[in-house]
Every structure is written in structure tokens, then in C-alpha cells.
Amino acid sequence: MKISNPASHMIFRQNEISLGIVLPAQARIKNDFDFPQQIAIARRADQLGFAGLWVRDVPLNSDRYPDPVGHADPWVLLGMLAASTEHIALGTAAIVLPLRHPLHVAKAALTMASSSTGRFLLGLGSGDRPGEYGAFGRNYEDRKVIFQNGWEEVSAALAGQGNLSGVANEQFYLRPRTDGVTIPLLAVGSSGQSLEWIAKNAFGWMTYYRELTIQRDRIALWNKAREKVTDGFGARVVEGTAFRL
Q1: What CA–CA distance (Å, rounded) separates 69 from 26?
Q2: 173 close to 79: Cβ distance less than 8 angstroms
Q3: Which residue among 33, 90, 151, 244 is least crowded, i.e. fewest CB within 10 A of its CB?
Q4: What is the pLDDT of residues 135-167, one digit of tens each?
Q5: Dihedral of CA 37/43/48/54: which sign?
Q6: What is the pTM of this model?
Q7: Rg, Å, the chain Cα set
Q8: Would you state the torsion angle of the CA atoms of residues 119, 125, 128, 133, taken in this order, to the nearest 10 degrees?
Q9: What one-character DSSP code corresponds to residue 239?
Q10: What is the C-alpha separation between 162 and 84, in angstroms, rounded?
Q11: CB–CB of 87/46 below 8 Å?
């Protein structure tokens, strides 16, 4: 799968490991998001040559959620990061797609790709908290289908192929344009999908860090899935939070 995107070349390098930072990178205590600290970390990471900054989407905090930090809205934070850095790739890990309208996600992704001069990668996941689904009026048991349908709509909208007809057949379109820069779609976790589906539809797969022996097995499964649906030069794998600071 060939793709024109500067961020993809920063993150995916043949026979190399790239290092990134997942934000927020701050003490895991019950506290609000520290914007000055995170922007300072982002600028320093940019200067030091880190490959990427990854932003998490946590729509709602709760006492049951293991990370007590009050997370920022990912799109607002990404805009701040784009304005505060020059070279480092910016990605989402991940937008909880079933809890957002696909056209809103596509609009935000196009805006990020344009404002960051193509340094953006869009990671999408399904989330894993039933209670959060309930708060948004969604059925957690339907997450697999909702995610798959949402993925198809986001992908089509970014490619300019979605059906955006409104009432009275009024045709709509998404802006801003990205001047030929495509936006890589990364599947974060499995979101109820098979590895074959992910290898066929995603630019890459982002999974969680595990012990090396287990991780080796996961990569082997991924390579088998990729071989089934690509020519060997298609989707890639991102191995999640091993290098979180």
C-alpha cells in the first residue's frame, strides 16, 4: 500500500524501530491535564528527533478508569501540538470511533493533516468501557459493527468518495484539502475485527506492549494475516506503549 504522507515515513522505517511518546506524559495521579508541561515535552521531543507524539482519546473519566489524569480533548490538543512543533509526526492512539460521528472525525483529520503539513496519522479504536457507551447512548455489544461501518465512512470521506448528499439532493463536501497528502488509517487494538480485516483495510496495526515472547507470536499472526491480503508491502504494525515515558 503506497501512501503519500510525511508522517508515515517518520514512523515506519524499513528494518528500524521508531520511538514516540504517548501524551499525557505526567504523574499518574488524580489531576487535570498539565498543558504547559505537555507542550514543553512535545517541543523537546521534536528537538531531540523522536519520531512521533501520540494523543489518547478518553471521552469520560471515572473512578474505575485506571488512569486518573483528566485527559484533554484530542483534537484541541493536536492543534496545539501542530502549532508547537515542526518535524515530529502526530497521531491518535486512538479516537474512539463508535462514540463519534464519522464525518466529524474525517473533518478533524483533514484539518490536522493540513495544519501540520502532512505530519498526521489517524488511529481509530472501539474503546472498551461499556459504561461509557451507555453515557453516549450506544450499545456496547454493537461496537464491532459500529466500528466497521464508521471506518468505512471515514475512509470514504477522506478519499472524497463518500455520499454527502443532504436534503433536496444538496451535495456537500469536506474541506480543507490536503493537496495530495493522504492520511494513514491505523487500527488500534482489534476493535472486534479479525487481523485479516485489519490487514486489508488499515495502513497499520497498533497493538499493546507484551512480554517479548508473546509479542513475537502476535507479530507472527500479523504477518500471516498480512500475507493473506497483501503483496507483502502493505499494512505495517506499530507495537504500542513499550516506550511510553
Answers
A1: 8
A2: no
A3: 244
A4: 999 999 999 999 999 999 999 999 887 778 766
A5: positive
A6: 0.90
A7: 18
A8: 100
A9: E
A10: 33
A11: yes
Q: Is 210 helix (H, G, I), strand (E, B) or coil?
A: coil
Cβ partners under 8 Å of residue 191, min gap 6 = 97, 124, 125, 126, 143, 144, 147
102: Cβ–Cβ under 8 A, 6 or more apart, which residues?
A: 150, 151, 153, 154, 157
C-alpha cell of residue 17? 524501530
Closest CA to 122 of 199, 182, 192: 182
For the stretch 21-71, pLDDT in tens is 999 999 989 999 999 999 999 999 999 999 999 999 999 999 888 889 999
**Amino acid making up residue 55:** V
Polymer length in residues for the chain: 245
What three-state secondary structure class fits 18? coil
Tell me the CB-side half-sphere exposure of residue 108, using CA atoms within 13 A. 21
